[in-house]
Amino acid sequence: MREIAIAPAAPGARPALPDELLRATRPYIVRGLAAGWPLVRAARDSIDAGDAYLRRFYRDATVNAMLGKPEIGGRFFYDDTLSGFNFFSVRARLDAVLDEMRGHRDRDAAAPGQPQPAIYVGSTTIDTALPGLRADNDVDLHGRDALASIWIGNRTRIAAHYDLPDNLAVVAAGRRRFTLFPPEQLANLYIGPIDFTPAGQSISLVDVTAPDFARFPRFRQALEHAQVAELDAGDAIFIPSMWWHHVEALAPFNVLVNYWWRQSPDYMDTPTNALMLALLTMRELPPEQRRAWQEMFRHYIFEPDAEALDHIPPQARYALAPLDDERARTLRGQLLKRINR
Q: Which domain of life is it from (predicted)?
């Protein structure tokens, strides 16, 4: 994976990336992007200092936490039948979660090597859970309306999954290993259910840290295209839209700050809706009809010809006209009527 070198931010300034890098379609690493963040400096001093710095911004917020027994080895996943999960989710005060993590660290120090429960606070909006944290711990994204989230936990593993938005992830405490796969490796990743998932996105059923090649032989091909990076506190990684990524938190106390944004207008729905509708309306069609619809999608969606609509007056193109907020609302209303027939 390529590493990008940028000039360090001036004291008190937000680090920034060139705008063209925020529109990239390949992943990259920026070492030390957030090295000047007070949170990063505190976490580098000690785990207790990093923990204490986070608590300065706590204002009685509750968060979603995932808890797993020591036997799962930090891997949040399905149960053996894929009908449930190997962890449970709770709503809890953030300070109580931090207390629980600290208690397990203390017990580990007293009896090193004992397996510890897995604790993970995922995708929590920073401004809600820790208001004020971003004042001195933020990245300049050139005006992008990004969702800034925080992820806190001990040694955990998150299965390979994709995100629709582009993603700039900053390790603020601890150390993480990212294993990335390009979108075209989909068939080699053995993806699980798309509508019953541990955390909202479909995931690979392969344990990247110990792959079972007898069960998942094509995963060897995926590994040939994998890109792996280990990041320390202050380092950042850019993960483009739709790239599959497996994330391992390698320290007893890990904090990740990430920014999600889409390179598309807000009125566009998620393409996942189209996929689900295609399952409902096309997958069971006879082969010839599926091929006909494949050509329809190629013509209108995936390889549209600039002159394909010249025969229709612009005022009469309706849904085929370029989308804007008003047309998107109209099209969504028409679609809802059709679905709810």
A: Bacteria
Same domain, 275 and 241: no
Domain hosting residue 332, numbered range:
271-339
Q: What's the confidence (pLDDT) of residue 13?
A: 87
Residues 302-325 have a mean pLDDT of 91
Residue 109, pLDDT above cutoff 90: no
pLDDT of residue 341: 75
Judged by DSSP in three states, 64 sits in strand
Mean pLDDT of 276-283: 95
Query: Among 200, 228, 261, where does a domain finish?
Result: 261
- Distance CA(101)–CA(239), nearest Å, equals 28
Q: Is the pLDDT of residue 11 over 80?
A: no
Taking the C-alpha atoms of residue 5 and residue 78, their distance in angstroms, rounded to an integer, is 39
Residue 113 pLDDT = 75
**d(C-alpha 175, C-alpha 155), whole Å:** 10
Which parts of the chain are beta strand (E)? 2-4, 28-30, 62-68, 75-76, 87-93, 118-125, 147-153, 157-161, 166-173, 175-181, 227-232, 236-239, 244-249, 254-261
Are residue 253 and residue 292 in the same domain, yes or no? no
Whether residues 149 and 98 fall in one domain: yes
